[in-house]
Amino acid sequence: MTATAAAETLRDQFLLDPDVVFLNHGSYGACPKPVFDRYQWWQRELERQPVDFLGRRSDDLLDAARAEVAAYVGADADDLVFVTNATSGLNVIARSLPLGPGDEILTTDHEYGALNLTWEHVCAKTGARYVHHPIPLPVTTAEELVASFWSRVTPRTKAIFLSHITSVTALILPVAEICRRAREAGILTIVDGAHVPGQIPLDLGALGADIYAGNCHKWLCAPKGSAFLYVRPEHQSAVEALVVSWGWARRPGFVGRNQWQGTRDIAAFLATPDAIAFQAEHDWPAVRARCHDLATEVRDRICARFALPPVQPAGPGWYAQMVVAPLPVPPGDEAVALQRRLYDRHRIEVPLTRHDDQAMVRVSVQGYNTAEELDLLVDALGEELPGHTEAH
Q1: Is the model's pLDDT at 73 over the cut of 90?
Q2: What is the pLDDT of residue 370?
Q3: Is residue 328 within 8 Å of residue 308, measured between CB atoms?
Q4: Last residue of a domain, one of 220, 250, 277
């Protein structure tokens, strides 16, 4: 089967609008039909006998689903709980930390905006400081990045917060080495893995982060509203919950406090093992490899068309299925207008992002995407940005 045929076969498994070139899987993900069917089956189970489902069965059902997700990410089931998204899970952590005046949370200038708002809010209330260490583009080597970042650690550094894969720049950061150094220094590490599960292999035991939050509804293709929060055992007693409900008393401990949040639809959590099974059935390591190759190709073509250097070295160490390429437009209104034209005129769903003064297009390549769709993006950018230098 050709690569295009394989992608088209997978496309038939998804509910996506066939009239849209969907190159933005990274924002909210997309759920395969059989996984979505299972999700709706669980919703019907809930509605068939709500008292039995939520009052008697939910703990055992969640425990079983949680165990499968934990095995998938290399963690113990008792160290992981379901949350609706990574941002929610990291809010649990930010609001649980005993911060005070002078404490510092060290981060990068590549972090997700919603989490920047979270930490700024918490620091404003506690008197702590949220310290952004700049990582200039283009990046060079992992060793240089780690050394530069670590130079900003001070005796006031209470915790390190950073993304495993950044949202705006799609970089895979060398978090394992930073976590190793932090553990030696006695500094808490908090990792935003929103884009990781399903896009790159994840082994939380080997990674060494103290706290990790990952989305299942993005690259793992689970239904919307499925994510997890992982906390190493020695930190669990300090982790509270955003909602104090019956779980606080009925099942003491990290899992109990955070698993029972009152009446809510848990179907997305329960269908997540089906997303894991779907990817296993479709040889997802091969899918990821094909998507990475396409991501590299489209990055190189966009950079060549506008005679702009890439912001990251080639290879799976720096990016996987999601990649950014710089564009010759200023960030701001002009970039927003370009993104709108790409959708309105060409029916291409793709985001434009920015880092400092550089506008970039962030391309997500999922198993259902074809090389022909990436051709349409490159051609559309050339049409919408005429007059810019093109390398030959």
Answers
A1: yes
A2: 96
A3: yes
A4: 277
Q: Does the predicted TM-score (pTM) go above 0.85?
A: yes
Q: Say how many domains are in the chain.
A: 2
Query: What pLDDT, on the 0 to 100 scale, is given for residue 389?
Result: 55
- Kindly state the helix (H) or strand (E) to which residue 229 belongs, with its residue range: strand 227-231
Mode of pairing for the β-strands spanning 104-108 and 129-133: parallel
Question: Given this model, what pLDDT does residue 53 score?
Answer: 94
Q: Which domain holds residue 365?
A: 3-16+283-384
Distance (Å, rounded) from C-alpha 372 to C-alpha 49? Answer: 48
Residues paired with residue 349 on neighbouring β-strands, in sequence order: 22
- What is the predicted pLDDT for the residue at 388? 66
Query: What's residue 392's pLDDT?
Result: 34
**Helices 267-281, 284-305: crossing angle, 10 deg rounding:** 90
Query: At residue 321, what are phi and psi to the nearest 5 degrees?
Result: -95, -10
**How many whole angstroms separate alpha carbon 66 and alpha carbon 242?**
19
> CA separation (Å) from 72 to 81, 163, 190, 211, 335?
14, 20, 20, 17, 38
Q: DSSP secondary-structure letter at 223? A: P
**Mean pLDDT over all residues of the chain?**
95
Q: How far is CA 50 from CA 53, 60, 65, 264, 272, in A?
A: 5, 15, 19, 11, 21
Tokens encoding 252: 């003491």
Mean pLDDT of 85-97: 96
Q: Are residues 263 and 287 in the same domain?
A: no
